[in-house]
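Hey, can you fold this?
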Amino acid sequence: MKDISVECLVFLCKTYLYSALAVAVIALLYVLSWDSNELTYVDPVRVYSFTPEVKSSAEAVIVQEVTGDLLQEEEYNDSLEYIACCVEAEAGNQSELGKRLVCDVILNRFNQGEYSSYFEVIDEPNQFKVVENGSIETVNPTDDTYRIVVEELENQTNTEVLYFRTAHYHPFGTPLFKEDDHYFSK
């Protein structure tokens, strides 16, 4: 079993904290909206408000999307964090373009439809050395790396790159170009 780094524990704590925060927000909305003339019902996806008029006509008004938005935001933040850790560990000493291209390898593999999450792309056996050697768990991505990942998620620099390595091109795929210390292929 791999040792769990402090950063990994912090990451897990943040994840659980966001989940607990979502539950607390829902509970707070329930408590704050309660009065004798209004009943609020919270389900896992929406908060419904029933006023006396609405109750009599059996219509419900969606007050606020709560859990769905929070869960999507949490999933996005978790993915962003993991991609940034991978990019920092693989290309932290490379140019901005080199970091963008490593990020694009992850995004392009995901976009091929063979994976259901960025985590699956990165954790696929024998794909990223930083997963194999554990450095992905100990690295602290810079603000610049986070910015690069966010920008690439919005608008990729390269939609072809699927592989990279140091020293030479992979024996499979089609060689494309060398950027800094990495040889990129599709």
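Oh, and this one too while you're at it.
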Amino acid sequence: MTHSMTAGLIAATILVAAVPVSHAQDTDTLRHARAFEKMVRAARPVPAPPQGEAAQAGNSIDAGRGPITVHVPASYDGSTPTPVVILLHGFTSDGPTVENWMQFANLVDEYEFLYLYPTGSSGPFGPFWNATDACCDLFNSGINDARYLRDVIAEMQNNYNVDPDSIHFAGHSNGGFMSYRMACDYADVVASIASLAGATWLDTAQCTPVEPVHTLQIHGTADGVIAYAGGCLGGGCFPGAVQTTETWANYDGCSLVGQPDPTPIDIDGVIPGNETNIVRYDTACLPGGSAELWTIAGGAHSPNLSADYNNLVIEWLLGHPKPGPACPADFDGSGDVGINDFLDLLAAWGPNPGHPADLDGDDVVGISDFLQLLASWGPCV
């Protein structure tokens, strides 16, 4: 343990000792909090050794709580709307620690996304996110971390050319809970989320998404902290992995009959073979919605992540954007594709990266875009 970590733990112990415990309820809160903190620390992942970064981290934003490093792909020049992935850490952890474990930064150049990993609010035991009544504002600070993360997105939009249809969250444990909170509160902004060992609200009345969000629940059956079958922490209770997934399938208007994938995948690098089974709820969903469950048979709270894990999660997130415009060739927003849109396309003819008339995304407005416009001629359906 480093000197800084030792000092942090000593400071946290002093803070906890200073919390008044004059009432039985306060004593219970403190006892539950201490027990949960010990359990989380015991299950904390061991970060993988550094393998180098494909993207340099020489950029940052500040949404009011200090600088946050932003990893920018080498191909980024500001001309093309670019996806954003935000990774959230677990209880008592921090942004750099969860990145060292999951190593999404190594994929920024290959998959061409903007990437950041903020650190949550400071608490007696270390950083946390105030996500649900179950996790993890153990001392009832009431801090609005959802608003803060929305401000983080706004700062990204102010400083980078962000694709508004491709904003994604991923998180572990408390960060998974917080990812669901962002899907609940800002469904009009968030395209998809991936939660490893987290959960959504048990009380569905607490989550009223204004539009569908794609959700991925990843959970080990041997999780001793956030139980696969659900349970309770000091502040409240949480649904299990299946109930979490089906709750979001219901929000998204999907059939609640899950479709198993016959081919398992490898999430845990220590458990032999392909131990993770996939069930998808993607039938009859509203546009922009689906739910998926990856069950790690025998997996712990902090799995020994396989070499494929980061690729699998990033590919899943980026493969689940919000639906684009129903009528992309309606450039003037009139509700139909007609002569004005045709003239707009002609005016943009030639090399024109990022222009709305570049319907096929090849950075050139040309004959294939013209043919797509003709195919959609008339009222938008």
